[in-house]
Amino acid sequence: MKTHGKKYRAAAEKIQAGTLHTPKAALEAVKTAAFAKFDETVEVAVRLGVDPRHADQVVRGTVVLPAGTGKTVRVCVIAVGDKAKEAEAAGADFVGTEFIQKIKDGWTDFDVMIATPDQMGQVGQLGRVLGPRGLMPNPKAGTVTFNVAQAVKETKAGKIEFRVDKAGNVQAAIGKVSFGLEALETNFGAFMEQIVRSKPAASKGVYVKTVAVSSTMGPGVRIDTTPYR
Predict the structure, then answer these.
(1) 134-180 confidence digits (pLDDT tens)
(2) How far apart, in whole angstroms, are the C-alpha atoms of residue 177 and residue 34?
(3) Residue 32 in contact with residue 206, Cβ under 8 Å?
(4) Contact at 8 Å (CB) between 42 and 173?
């Protein structure tokens, strides 16, 4: 049976077990309980009342976190001509169709790929490499678009993608422990608003069942879901 270390147990003692918190109180508890020597990521986990086995109950979307993610996002754009120039001007790290061959050769030193629709015929050949890593461009995620400048800027500014897993859970990173409480609260609010807006019409009963926030190494803190019902 797995047991937690002394630091984790000490952090868990600071959390009121079984208590449902407001988002502000929960995030404050996460910051207080964080004990790692590195700047831990603050994560939110939501259990939804959906059955992802049915296509009409899959919850998926994107949201731009107002305070950013705290991470430097490396963006690779597959585009040509004016669209490639737009991507470069918007701050993309890697631009051009020459990266298609590099990826075939095993290069994947980027976090997000954006491609224009006219290049998806070539990008589609990279499915075996990009798919398992979650890097394949997708229209629903806004990463297959002719508006590459906006896509690059939003990604750099803190745009994240979320998708429900087989068990009906959605997890996302909403910042760092070093963020101010207001910044974390703003990001959390934006994320939950998008989760609520993404409710499938086929979903019946309670949609948002449980919500918890935690740091990378720390214990989870439960949040009152009443406002999301």
Answers:
(1) 899 999 889 999 999 999 999 999 999 999 999 999 999 999 999 99
(2) 7
(3) no
(4) yes
211, 222 contact by CB (below 8 A)? yes
**Structural domains in the chain plus CATH codes:** 18-68+159-228 (3.30.190.20), 75-156 (3.40.50.790)
The residues near 131 (Cβ < 8 Å, ≥ 6 apart) are: none
Contact by Cβ (8 Å): 199, 209: no
Rg value, the chain, Cα: 19
CB atoms within 10 A of CB 81: 9
d(CA 179, CA 206): 32
The tokens 């993404």 sit on which residue? 198
* Alpha-carbon dihedral 199, 202, 207, 212, rounded to 10 degrees: -60
DSSP-assigned states of every residue in 153-189: HHHHHTEEEEE--TTSEEEEEEEETTS-HHHHHHHHH
What pLDDT, in 10s, does the model give residues 31-59? 999 999 999 999 999 999 999 999 999 99
Handedness of CA 76, 79, 81, 87 (dihedral sign): negative
Residue listed under structure tokens 């069942």: 209
DSSP line for 112-154: EEEE-GGGHHHHGGGHHHHGGGT----GGGT-B-S-HHHHHHH
Residues linked to residue 62 through DSSP beta bridges, in sequence order: 161
175-195 mean pLDDT: 97
